[in-house]
Amino acid sequence: MSPANPVLVEATRGGLVESRHRGAYAVVDAAGRLVAARGEIGRVTFPRSSMKILQAIPLIESGAADAFACTPAELALACASHSGEAMHVEAVGAWLARIGRGEADLVCGPQMPAYVPAAEAMIREGRHPCRLHNNCSGKHAGFLTLARHLGARAAGYNRREHPVQQAVFAAVAGLTGAGEDMAFGIDGCAAPAPALPLQGLALAMARIAAPDGLPPARAEAVSRLRAAMAAHPELVAGTGRACTRLMRAAAPGTVVKVGAEAVYIGILPALGLGLALKIDDGGTRAAELLVAALLDRFGQIRPEARGDIADLLAPLLRNWAGDEVGALRLAPDWA
Amino acid sequence: MSPANPVLVEATRGGLVESRHRGAYAVVDAAGRLVAARGEIGRVTFPRSSMKILQAIPLIESGAADAFACTPAELALACASHSGEAMHVEAVGAWLARIGRGEADLVCGPQMPAYVPAAEAMIREGRHPCRLHNNCSGKHAGFLTLARHLGARAAGYNRREHPVQQAVFAAVAGLTGAGEDMAFGIDGCAAPAPALPLQGLALAMARIAAPDGLPPARAEAVSRLRAAMAAHPELVAGTGRACTRLMRAAAPGTVVKVGAEAVYIGILPALGLGLALKIDDGGTRAAELLVAALLDRFGQIRPEARGDIADLLAPLLRNWAGDEVGALRLAPDWA
After folding, report:
1. What is the rounded CA–CA span in Å between residue B7 and residue B335?
2. Which InterPro entries match (chains A, B) (predicted)?
3. Which residue in B134, B193, B286 is closest to A320 by CB distance?
4. Average pLDDT over residues B182-188
5. What is the ipTM of this complex?
6. Mean pLDDT of chain A
7. In this structure, are residues A298 and A268 in contact, taking their beta carbons and an 8 Å threshold?
8. What are the angstrom distances between the C-alpha of B284 and each of B52, B167, B194, B258?
9. Which helix (H) or strand (E) holds B142?
10. Residue A57 φ then ψ, to 5°
11. Which of B4, B13, B46 sits opposite A4 (nearest CB)?
């Protein structure tokens, strides 16, 4: 039994603590030095969608992105967990058409858009979501682009032994320090989901924040991906989503990205730091507060934008009548 | 700092543990003897909707339920967190009409039905939910019935000093052993949400399971409420919901009831036991597995019904394509 991670976030009601979220986080520089940390940062974690920027590296390094004239918007979508809004779905559809592929080539299943107006419009009109609506469809479009460029078959592009995933795992291993034989599960979108120590995930993000120590081609690749995400926060998540709003409020070039089961990464180029966090129980509400708090603690929220994310920095809990009944707050010894 | 509660439930992916839920539970008899427990069972907890049966006691004891000819179905709705299906909404509406009250008297806010087909029909038809759709509307109908019977004004029936809540807090105190001055917050439905030790919540449920030691009027009141819930599992929650399905699969007369932020109670009349559990982080998926496992451990799942709740006893996690990618399971030292 490893020791319990500390309580990092509390939900209150009537002035009492109602629920508690434990977790761990690491903030590191590109040399791997710990700048801040709590909890068991060596624990093996599934980064899930928080690591999509790592999974997109071969798309650039292979030359596939340039061969198929991928735009920065498409690169952002390759690193996105999008909300299934028209801007996301149409862009992924157009990208696939340009490389001679289509929705039927995607292995991710259909998913209702997270953007409520889009989901409601679909229900009203009797339409059903397709695989393009899956929040990971941009990542899969990137995989299919890479497969095409490598001359590999499209079918099975999500299998660990396929050239696409071989390249992806090599890139993930290279930046995180994990072995290429790292464990993996299957993600919600049917792609492999690598598992690695939380600290390694933070290190990879620090190396993207300060890429000078990387081989030039890799430094260029991660910088292009980071810049594409930072330039298109609305494509990385969507209208009203925490990732999108935090990136808009943060210092220029900053990237944050959520992963399922309450993982978050941050890339802080202004400081040359990377961060990774995981809430033990998978509670995304706690992960969102913690990443906002870490950006704030390191001075990465632009002062004039604080008001735009006041609800992310200090979330209130309201009842169905709209009255404030509690709050989500940082636990006393979170830092 | 109190010690950390044990990990009771784990979410796995690819054979590894991805997320962990800590918590506490107590199984007690009507004399308060612990039959089984894990974690810090003295910790103050908001039972939320899991305690609706306690909040409905004055509806019976006051004579209000009989004066207004409340049916067992209505008593079940008074103790319910319903899914906003037609059977729920219409029954609460008819009940309110019979006592000369209406939707406008309810202080609970409007809430989309949890039952997806009902929500989708509403969206398709351009309708909006009203307060009758709030999962707590039956509890509020009970409060309004009590107010009417007491000759108290309807307005403000959710305020702590209103005669309705005075009676409710007295009943909660009487069965749980908490003082009437117990702390409280405001619930999602704008009613007071008492806070009390988890063990006290379990004790109250044991006293309902084996009411012989209670004053006769109270014993009769809690037995009527328990029987009403057990007779109408579809009204206590709704189609496909865990509470409904577990009650149908359990020994006759058994009641289980969820509360927000991952609380569950169980009333086991066949054994004269009560149980209460709370997952620290508010993760309902873990609370549902744990209550199913506790019913099973105490032999309260009917053998011929096991197949009906196989997915509750051993939940699988699937991706958007429908493939099994992990599971929710009991942690090694849950028992």
Report:
1. 11
2. Asparaginase_II
3. B134
4. 97
5. 0.97
6. 97
7. yes
8. 18, 30, 20, 8
9. helix B137-150
10. -55, -45
11. B4
pLDDT for B2: 66
Domain annotation for chain B: domains and CATH numbers: 7-330 (3.40.710)
Task: Characterize B173-211 residue by residue with b for buried, 16 or more Cβ atoms within 10 angstroms of its Cβ, and e for exposed.
Answer: bbbbbbeeebbbbbbbbbbbbbbbbbbbbbbbbbbbbbb
Contact status of B322 with chain A (Cβ, < 8 Å): yes
Pairing of strands A324-330, A7-13: antiparallel
φ and ψ at residue A215, rounded to 5 degrees? -55, 145
Asked if residue B1 has pLDDT above 90, the reply is: no
Mean pLDDT of chain B: 97
B332: contact with A, CB 8 A cutoff = no
- Give the separation between CA B220 and CA B224, rounded to whole angstroms: 6
A185 and B13: CB-CB below 8 Å? yes
**Model confidence over A191-235: pLDDT tens digits?**
999 999 999 999 999 999 999 999 999 999 999 999 999 999 999
A256-307 per-position pLDDT tens digit: 999 999 999 999 999 999 999 999 999 999 999 999 999 999 999 999 999 9
State whether residue B108 sits within 8 Å of chain A by CB: yes
Q: What is the CB neighbour count within 10 angstroms for residue B69?
A: 10
B81/chain A closest Cα distance in angstroms:
14
What pLDDT score was predicted for residue A2? 66
Tokens of A293: 């708090």
Instruction: Tell me the pLDDT tens digit for each residue of A186-203.
Output: 999 999 999 999 999 999
Helix (H) or strand (E) holding A137: helix A137-150
- Close Cβ partners of B33 (under 8 Å, ≥ 6 residues apart): none
Q: What is the pLDDT of residues B224-282, one digit of tens each?
A: 999 999 999 999 999 999 999 999 999 999 999 999 999 999 999 999 999 999 999 99
Is residue A111 within 8 angstroms of chain B, CB to CB? yes
- Residues of chain A neighbouring B187 (CB-CB closer than 8 A): 319, 325
CB A193 within 8 A of CB A49: no
Residue range B8-24: mean pLDDT, rounded: 97
Percent of chain A with pLDDT over 90: 98
Q: Of B189, B279, B320, which is closest to A319 when you measure between CB atoms?
A: B189
Q: Exposure pattern of B43-61 as b/e (b: 16+ CB <10 Å)?
A: bbbbbbbbbbbbbbbbbbb
| pLDDT score at B3 | 81
Contact A17, B43 (CB under 8 A): no
Residue A87 contacts residue A236 (beta carbons within 8 Å): no
Two structure tokens written together for A201: 């995930």
Residues from chain A that touch B193, judged by Cβ atoms under 8 A, are 13-14
Categorize the per-residue pLDDT at A3 as very low, low, confident or very high, splitting at 50, 70 and 90: confident
Report d(CA B326, CA B314) in Å as an integer.
11
- Return residues 116-135 of A near B (CB < 8 Å): 120, 123-124, 126, 134
CB neighbourhood size of A251 (10 A): 18
Query: Could B18 and A134 be called an inter-chain contact, meaning their C-beta atoms sit closer than 8 Å?
Result: no
